[in-house]
Design a protein that fits this description.
This protein has 522 residues and is of the alpha+beta class. 50% of the residues lie in helices and 6% in strands.
């Protein structure tokens, strides 16, 4: 049996051999064509030591100033192509989608029971079946059916903020989980410690660590580590993988069983799973085992998904919104003046008001642009070699869109670090064309839940603005507590503000009356 040093030496040798063979094959296939420009790296490590691991999008943005919008680099033997402009992302990932729609292989996906999710599937027939099912409930038209529910959830969220404002992070999680569980399964989770939600949060917590930069780099450099027994030093994560697979089994099966039981009793509500079970039922009202497994995977993906899944996007984006309102009270006041002028004080705004509220829409857009919660898209992978603009791009390259660079392009957005909703409006106050929309991906791997997330976030923002006053909290002496714009970082999870304190209270007695009446269903 190999000792640990012998094991590591063997793994390092195999890695070096793999990198050398790949480099030789690439050199032979290039036939004199250059690779895209990029920073020069070291043997084996590539550009890993040059990269800001906490915020790699910042490194890519700086390199783009020197090398252009298309950058080539390597990290521990893995090739990466980074796209730093929306136009280029559209050209490559949309117009050449037949080559750029695959996903890189992630060894931890199957090990941790995550390989069923749509976002990690390789491009092929199974992915097409998934996306066909999403279209049933998540097309632009179908998504409108969920607007009344989303409005109701947003009002419940606002009431929770009024009742316990210091617990706003928990209320954000409840809102996002409540909307997506209702959309997917027609299920209303309990406000705290719901059994389904607890399992999902535990699952995401374990798997996120498995996808962390440190874990990915370690397994990339020493792939044999994934075969260590759980009792072996360094193999503790195998025990976590076993727990994760067990949670994945429950997450796939238990909510579906809930819907099936509700359908049998005739009490089920509108949901994606209900529609799919009805759509794929045979003449005897049963669903084939194959179709049912795909339905389970599609439904679980909606909640779990990837770093850009709908629930996390809703939670993180609204967290950014609250921070922006604390830091920019003048924006909040201007948005509220527009709502008062258009909607009045006898009712709350709803989706029918959206086109009449251009400044609120500008706030919505600027919240996404200012601090994108997913600064880098989930990597695509090339399914064949390609030549673009005279550059050779080999098969299997990881292709990443730098959303941060797109949303902080100074030629489009002067002073990009500032929060300015006015940048989305004309001089006369009309909404400009939304030229930047990279937040949910590109091409055939674009997030299928884009319309659900868009509706959930907008209606929550407008409901908060209409009824709440969000500002800095005061200490015991009456002085305002300073709030800084500080954010989490890393590759595995979406970016969100670090914990901050704020004051949340009703704008008026009438606003509180309206929101409580709505929550009661009056």
């Amino acid at each position: 049996m190999l000792t640990i040093p012998e094991f590591l030496i063997c793994s390092a040798f195999l890695l070096l051999l793999s990198i050398s063979v790949r480099a030789w094959k690439t050199q032979r296939l290039r036939r004199g064509l250059p690779l895209p420009p990029g920073p020069k790296g070291l043997p084996i490590f590539g550009n890993a030591l040059d990269l800001d691991v906490a915020a790699p999008w910042l490194s890519y943005t700086e390199w783009a100033k020197k090398y252009g919008d298309l950058i080539y680099l390597t990290i521990l033997g893995q090739e990466f192509l980074v796209i730093n402009s929306e136009e280029l992302a559209h050209t490559i990932l949309h117009q050449r989608s037949e080559i750029y729609s695959d996903r890189p292989y992630i060894s931890t996906s199957a090990l941790f029971g995550m390989d069923f999710t749509t976002g990690l599937l390789p491009y092929g027939d199974l992915l097409r079946q998934h996306r066909k099912m999403y279209h049933v409930g998540f097309s632009k038209e179908a998504s409108r059916e969920y607007q009344p529910m989303q409005l109701s959830k947003a009002h419940q969220f606002v009431e929770s903020l009024i009742d316990s404002p210091t617990q706003f992070p928990m209320h954000l999680k409840t809102l996002s989980a409540g909307i997506i569980m209702a959309v997917t399964y027609g299920y209303d989770p309990a406000p705290a410690k719901d059994p389904y939600v607890v399992k999902v949060e535990r699952f995401i917590g374990i798997f996120s660590k498995a996808l962390s930069p440190e874990r990915a780099a370690l397994l990339g450099m020493f792939p044999l580590l994934q075969y260590l027994p759980s009792w072996f030093p360094g193999g503790a994560y195998k025990r976590q993988a076993g727990e994760c697979r067990g949670l994945a089994h429950d997450i796939l099966n238990e909510p579906i069983e809930y819907v099936q039981a509700e359908m049998a009793s005739g009490t089920t509500r509108q949901s994606l799973v209900k529609d799919l079970l009805g759509r794929y039922a045979t003449k005897d009202d049963t669903v084939t085992v194959e179709d049912e497994e795909i339905i389970k995977a599609v439904a679980a993906t909606v909640f779990l998904g990837s770093p850009i899944h709908v629930s996390r996007q809703t939670d993180s984006s609204l967290h950014m919104f609250l921070l922006a309102m604390v830091l920019h009270p003048e924006v909040q006041i201007k948005a509220q003046e527009e709502i008062d002028r258009v909607v009045g004080d006898s009712r709350l705004p709803d989706f029918s008001d959206r086109e009449k509220l251009p400044y609120v829409e500008a706030v919505f857009r600027e919240t996404f642009r200012w601090r994108p919660t997913v600064p880098l898209t989930l990597p695509h992978a090339t399914s064949a070699s390609d030549v673009y603009d005279g550059y050779y791009i080999s098969k299997g390259v990881n292709v990443v869109v730098n959303v941060w660079a797109i949303t902080h392009d100074e030629t489009r957005f002067p002073d990009p670090m500032s929060y300015k909703p006015e940048r989305h409006l004309s001089a006369t106050g009309e909404l400009l064309e939304d030229v930047v929309s990279p937040y949910f991906g590109f091409g055939r791997r674009k997030c299928p839940g884009i319309y659900i997330a868009d509706q959930s976030i907008w209606v929550s923002i407008v409901s908060c603005l209409a009824t709440l006053r969000i500002g800095k909290r005061k200490d015991a002496t009456g002085c305002e507590i300073d709030v800084k714009a500080e954010f989490t970082a890393g590759l595995a999870l979406s970016v969100r503000p670090k914990p901050f304190e704020c004051s949340i209270e009703p704008r008026s007695a009438n606003a509180e009356r309206l929101i409580r009446a709505s929550s009661r269903g009056d």
